[in-house]
Amino acid sequence: MCSDCCSHSLTVANNVWATPVHPVKLLAHLQVYTETKATINAFRLSCRFGTGPNVFVANMPQELVDMVVNEILQPARTAVYKYWDELFACAEERCRYRDHFSEEEKEELRPEMEDIWRQGAAGGADFSLDDVLSEHLDSCGSDSVYGLHLDNKSLWQQAVSQGHHQWIEAGKFKHYPGSFDKYEEVLDKDFGLSAWISHQKIPSTLRTIFPSPGSLTPGEERETTVGFLKLPDKHHKEDASVYTSEDQYSSDGERRYTCDSTLSMLVDPKALEISKEQRSRFARAMQALGLEPFVHPTQLIAPSHKSFRVGKSKHSMERVFLFKGHNKPHSTQYPEAIEKERKRIEEHVKNLEESSWPKLMSLVNTNHKW
Questions:
Q1: Does residue 324 lie in a domain region?
Q2: Which pTM does this prediction carry?
Q3: DSSP letter at 303?
Q4: 348 lies in a domain?
Q5: Domain region containing 282
Q6: Where does residue 266 rank: exposed (0-12), middle (13-18), buried (19+ CB within 10 A)?
Q7: Does residue 266 form part of some domain?
Q8: Which helix (H) or strand (E) holds 281?
Q9: What is the DSSP letter of 55?
Q10: How far is CA 120 from the centre of its chain?
C-alpha cells in the first residue's frame, strides 16, 4: 500500500419513525406502481366521473373497482418480483447452479435426462425427472455461470442503490445519484415517505441457524439487504479517515490501522411523537404498494446476548452466542438445539411483524472502504 493511501468510513445515523419491509417487494411493487399508475388512475376516474353511452364502469361498486385493480397489479407484481428475487438470491448467496439456466436450456437437456431417469427408475431408484435434471445442472459449474452469478449480484446492488456521498478527501464528499432515486421521488410525492436501504453481513451463527439451500461459493460470507419505509428526516453523518505510512507496522510485522470516531447528535423531542396524519402515510403506502412488515433476523438484538447450548466438546460446554459469532458449529452437529433456536427466532420475528407499525427506530449504517 502506498504511503499516501487512506482508509475511510462513513456512518449515517437517523432517529425516525419507520416500518421494516422486504427489499424485493419494495423494489418490485414500486416499479409496478410507477408503471401502472396512469392506467389505474384513469380507470378509477372513469368509475367515479365517467358519463356517456360508452362508459360501462361508471358507478361501479368500490369492491369491484378494487378487484379489477388487483387483477391489473397482481400478475405484474408476480412477474417483476420473480425477476428481482432471482438477483437477490445471488446477492444473498442462496442460489444454486441450476438457478442460472434458462427454461429453454433446461428443456434442451430434458430428453437426455429422461433416459437417465428411466434407467434409474427401472433399477428401483426413487427420484423424479426434475431431480435428475437439477442434479445435472448443479454439476455443470462453469466460468460463464459464475460470471452470470456475479453480474446478478452487481445488478441487485445497483438497483437498490440510493444517492450517496462518496469520500474524496478528509472532510469532503461528492454526491452520486442512485438507481433507486426515481422511486424515492415517488415515495415522497405520493406518500410523504422515504426509504432506507442498506446491506448487512449475515453473522456466522445465523448462517448456521438459517443455512443457505445452496451457494456457488460455499464458505463465503453471506450478505443480505434490509429495507425500511420511514418519515423523511435529516441524516447525521460522520466520516473517519486513516492515513497510512510505511512505518505503520505492529510488533509482529503486520500492518495495523486504527481510528476512533464519535458521532453525537441532538434529538428533537418532536421526533418522539407521530401524528395521525403521519401514521396514515404508512397505511396508505403499505396498502397501495401491497407491502407488509418484514423483519430480517439480522436486525434483532438478543437481550444480554442470550445464548443457547448446542453440545459438549472434549473440554467444555460449547455455546453459540447469537449475533456474536464466537463459534461456528455445523448444522448437522447439534440439530435439535439449532432447530429450537430457529423456532425461537422465527416466533420472535412473527410477533414483531404482527405488532403495531410504524415504530420509533434508530437506524445506523456504517460503510467502510480501504
A1: no
A2: 0.79
A3: G
A4: no
A5: 6-101+140-293+355-369
A6: exposed
A7: yes
A8: helix 276-289
A9: -
A10: 40
